[in-house]
Amino acid sequence: MTFKFLFTKKQDLPVKVAFLDRDGVINIDHGYVNNKQHFTFVEGALEGMKLLSEKGYSLVLITNQSGIGRGKYTIFDFAKLTFWLEGLLFKNGSPFSAVYFCPHHPQKAFAPFLQECDCRKPQPGMILSAIKDLNIDIENSLFIGDKESDMRAALGAGIPTRILVKSDGTAPFDAQISCTRTANTLLEAAKTI
Q1: Any idea what the CATH number is for the domain that residue 136 is in?
Q2: How far is residue 87's CA from residue 33's CA, in Å, rounded to a whole number?
């Protein structure tokens, strides 16, 4: 089952997409961020998303959210935060076209979220669902994430440009096995595209 919020309808013509991870890329990863009081943007993230939008990319969020399956917060809590964020991004001129999230974990979750699935990164399931739902031009799309699991999911879905950024814009790079290039932050990545 794919968990998602679609903010746009499927386009007639293929669209190029910037797939983005959330925690560590858009916001500081404080661990299980589930409300706006704990949501702090990574420096330059809003500007980076606006720049991507100005360059013609639709933005799609692809995020593992095992905190739901672990009972740390609910799908409702995640939805409330997501819709608050979407409101900010809309005002910024860089709204999400869709948000895909995986609440599962293969070992550390409660039923029904305790499972192996095809959506939890590094599996490409969320990206493949987005490709079907939104008529995505995969050859001209890209993925920006802060973990090797992001890059592996993007590679598995056939995304040619995979940019690894530093978690929170400051941490050392994660393994650089499946990325095609690196950047310190989302903003720096957006400037180089």
Answers
A1: 3.40.50.1000
A2: 18
Q: What is the pLDDT of residues 20-51, one digit of tens each?
A: 999 999 999 999 999 999 999 999 999 999 99
Q: Are 19 and 142 in contact (CB under 8 A)?
A: yes
133-150 pLDDT, tens per residue? 999 999 999 999 999 999
Q: How many residues does the chain have?
A: 193
pTM over 0.85? The answer is: yes
- DSSP notation for 76-137: HHHHHHHHHHHHHHHHHT--EEEEEEE--BSSS--TTSBS--SSSTTS-HHHHHHHHHHTB-
CA 27 to chain CA centroid, Å, is 11
Residue 15 bridge partners (DSSP): 136
Positions marked active-site: 21, 23
Instruction: Give me the number of domains the chain comprises.
Output: 1
Domain of 124 in residue numbering reads as: 3-191
